[in-house]
């Protein structure tokens, strides 16, 4: 009721009182006047006082009534607000609330209770509690009333499939006695914990499954709490470390299982890994762990964080892989690799030494043969000399092949990139093998297509070596028919800077069976051992060809038919050279070639035969020679005498040729001429040696056995340089 209504009601009470009082006073005074016959003025005065009193009393009644009614209104309003507030709370709590009366009826049920029971409030209130309380729980209901009568609460946890028509309900309950309208009532609260129970059961199943997986995988599986204590260890971990489960669980992980010398490092890495995982990053790490016997195992770990309902990390599960055997295998492999590298290095050093030791006497043999060839000989003697020279050259080729394949396998074989003429590459091949083919009665042809540029850039020495091996094999294994060398340029529009040259070596020889096609590219392998005896050779030619073609980014293919012959196809990518004849300066018409005067040559060579051959060859060329047996002797002679050029052997006792050259070039005392031409003569004929010698300060390089033509050309260049005006 509004305050205005209360004021109107108060006014009505006051007016009623005033009217009733006035009527009473008027009629009572008139009657008294009649009885007593009081004078009229006095009577009216008395009546006026009575009326005034009545009206004042009515006003006071109004004020008091209005205040009382407003107080009642305020109290009622507070009561309604309180009731509304508590009703809102009760109807919106997640717990189900039911009030049972002492008569066994439901007086109230909140919406959550209706939802839990699957019934409306009207349905619940119309039913006896036995209708919806599960049969197995009615004893609990009776016990709750017994405790309520003693003023005690009752609580617990249970589940029942009878509460809700569609599902089993898990719940917590609590009953509290309460008085209402002077009678005892029972307030029962129920909390539906079905979802949390299901979640807990799912978590238990998941954890059980997870534990089963960890227990049965062939990996290390452990769990640590936040204090670093071991809370779980699978059988694989226990088997590796030698601990029993009872001994291991509860132990401090770092103090028990981590070696003392790396304990702080592992703890720091572990903590940093945890920080990264908290940020959602995946991380792994490796460390050693200790077994019960004190042995160390190398393990690679991955971690999984376990969190509680508040998203706090409560446990860390670690899965590890035992790397111990792998590490041992890697160490063994590394040791084996190191041993192989040492052995390979030893082999290279052995071959280098062998090169010197074999080439040195071979140089003497070939030198003496060349000297003998320059004397007066009859035809029979010249034939003997030519045969001996051919045998020496064959021995030299075998030695070179062995050195080349060794350097390639050691990864120390380097290609050069320089301008060259295709004629310079092909001419020696044709000149050498056309004679051999003619001697066997074979036709030998060489065809170079017009589209092959005359000037190219690449490694001419290795290209010539490839052709020498392929053509040499073709001539060697062909008894009748022909050998053909073809060179052509393939279309190259896709990459104009790289010119694909196609080389084909065709023969009508013995051919290669299909099952042997891959084997012939292996070292020391031929088509058949009988052929090796019949045709000779050590089986290195094609192995070298395959490796050289691969190093030059080319391709090699063989097309062969036993008894009919073989076609070897090689494709190499070279560049056209900008070198042109016009770019070379042409001497003036009036200028005449400068004469090559005799030179004063210091021959530094420790081998007597080779020194004798060099001296005799130089004398035949018209030069003056002085001999030195090693680098120290050479320096002594250079300090006291003047020479035009030095022929320097490389491997010598006391002081080798490279060291002697460096001392000459780096001299600041004035004892030596630092600019004197120095030409290396060595049996170290392996790729890369020329660069090493030149970096030491040598001007030119001659490989033993030194041919007379090569020596004459080298000295000619020195003489021309000396004759040129400064």
From TrEMBL:
Give the PAC domain ranges.
Answer: 283-335
Keywords recorded for this protein, A-Z: ATP-binding, Kinase, Membrane, Nucleotide-binding, Phosphoprotein, Transferase, Transmembrane, Transmembrane helix, Two-component regulatory system
Start and end of every Histidine kinase domain? 353-576
Q: Which InterPro entries match?
A: CheY-like_superfamily, HATPase_C_sf, HATPase_dom, His_kinase_dom, HisK_dim/P_dom, HisK_dim/P_sf, PAS, PAS-assoc_C
* One Gene Ontology molecular-function label: phosphorelay sensor kinase activity
Pfam families with a match to the protein in the record: HATPase_c, HisKA, PAS, PAS_9, Response_reg
Catalytic activity of the protein = ATP + protein L-histidine = ADP + protein N-phospho-L-histidine
Assembly description: At low DSF concentrations, interacts with RpfF.
Q: What is this protein called?
A: Sensory/regulatory protein RpfC
Natural source organism: Oceanidesulfovibrio marinus
């Amino acid at each position: 009721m509004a305050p205005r209504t209360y004021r109107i009601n108060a006014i009505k009470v006051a007016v009623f009182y005033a009217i009733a009082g006035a009527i009473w006073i008027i009629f009572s005074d008139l009657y008294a006047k009649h009885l007593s016959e009081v004078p009229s003025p006095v009577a009216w005065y008395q009546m006026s006082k009575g009326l005034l009193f009545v009206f004042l009393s009515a006003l006071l009644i109004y004020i008091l009534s209005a205040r009382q009614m407003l107080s009642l209104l305020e109290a009622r309003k507070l009561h309604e607000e309180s009731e509304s507030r508590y009703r809102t709370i009760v109807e919106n709590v997640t717990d189900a609330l039911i009030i049972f009366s002492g008569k066994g009826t439901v007086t109230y049920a909140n919406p959550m209770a209706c939802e839990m029971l699957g019934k409306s409030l009207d349905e619940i209130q119309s039913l006896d509690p036995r209708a919806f309380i599960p049969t197995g729980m009615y004893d609990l209901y009776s016990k709750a009333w017994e405790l309520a009568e003693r003023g005690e609460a009752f609580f617990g946890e249970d589940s029942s499939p009878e509460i809700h028509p569609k599902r089993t309900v898990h719940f917590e309950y609590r009953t509290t006695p309460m008085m209402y309208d002077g009678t005892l009532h029972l307030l029962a609260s129920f909390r539906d914990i079905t979802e949390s129970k299901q979640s807990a059961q799912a978590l238990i199943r998941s954890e059980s499954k997870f534990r089963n997986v960890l227990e049965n995988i062939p990996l290390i599986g452990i769990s640590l709490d936040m204090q670093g204590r071991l809370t779980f260890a699978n059988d694989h971990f226990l088997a590796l470390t030698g601990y029993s489960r009872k001994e291991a669980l509860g132990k401090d992980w770092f103090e028990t299982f981590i070696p003392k010398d790396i304990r702080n490092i592992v703890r720091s890495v572990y903590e940093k890994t945890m920080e990264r995982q908290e940020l959602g990053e995946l991380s792994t790490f490796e460390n050693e762990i200790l077994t019960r016997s004190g042995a160390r195992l190398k393990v690679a770990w991955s971690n999984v964080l376990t969190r509680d309902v508040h998203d706090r990390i409560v446990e860390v599960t670690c899965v590890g892989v035992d790397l111990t055997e792998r590490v041992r295998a890697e160490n063994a492999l590394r040791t084996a690799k190191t041993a192989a590298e040492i052995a390979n290095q030893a082999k290279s050093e052995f071959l280098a030494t062998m090169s010197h030791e074999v080439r040195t006497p071979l140089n003497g043999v070939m030198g003496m043969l060349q000297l003998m060839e320059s004397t007066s000989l009859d035809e029979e003697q010249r034939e003997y000399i030519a045969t001996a020279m051919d045998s020496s050259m064959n021995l030299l080729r075998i030695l070179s092949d062995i050195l080349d394949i060794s350097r390639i396998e050691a990864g120390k074989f380097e290609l050069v990139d320089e301008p060259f003429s295709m004629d310079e590459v092909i001419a020696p091949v044709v000149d050498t093998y056309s004679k051999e083919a003619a001697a066997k009665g074979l036709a030998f042809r060489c065809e170079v297509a017009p589209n092959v540029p005359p000037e190219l850039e690449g490694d001419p020495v290795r290209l010539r070596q490839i052709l020498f091996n392929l053509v040499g094999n073709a001539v060697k294994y062909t008894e009748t028919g022909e050998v053909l060398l073809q060179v052509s340029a393939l279309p190259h529009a896709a990459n104009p800077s790289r010119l694909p040259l196609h080389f084909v070596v065709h023969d009508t020889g013995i051919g290669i069976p299909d099952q042997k096609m891959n084997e012939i590219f292996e070292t020391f392998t031929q088509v058949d051992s009988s052929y090796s005896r019949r045709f000779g050779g050590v089986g290195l030619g094609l192995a070298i060809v395959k490796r050289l073609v691969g190093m030059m980014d080319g391709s090699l293919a063989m097309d062969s038919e036993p008894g009919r012959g073989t076609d070897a196809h090689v494709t190499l990518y070279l560049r056209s050279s900008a070198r042109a004849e016009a770019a070379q300066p042409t001497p003036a018409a009036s200028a005449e070639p400068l004469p090559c005067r005799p030179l004063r040559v210091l021959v530094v060579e420790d081998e007597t035969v080779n020194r004798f051959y060099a001296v005799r060859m130089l004398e035949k060329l018209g030069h003056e020679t002085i001999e030195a047996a090693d680098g120290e002797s050479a320096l002594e002679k250079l300090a006291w005498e003047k020479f035009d050029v030095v022929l320097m052997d490389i491997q010598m006792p006391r002081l080798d040729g490279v060291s002697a050259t460096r001392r000459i070039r780096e001299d600041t005392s004035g004892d030596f001429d630092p600019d004197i031409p120095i030409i290396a003569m060595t049996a170290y004929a392996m790729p890369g040696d020329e660069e090493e010698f030149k970096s030491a300060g040598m001007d030119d390089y001659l490989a033993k056995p030194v041919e007379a033509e090569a020596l004459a050309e080298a000295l000619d260049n020195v003489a021309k340089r000396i004759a040129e005006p400064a």
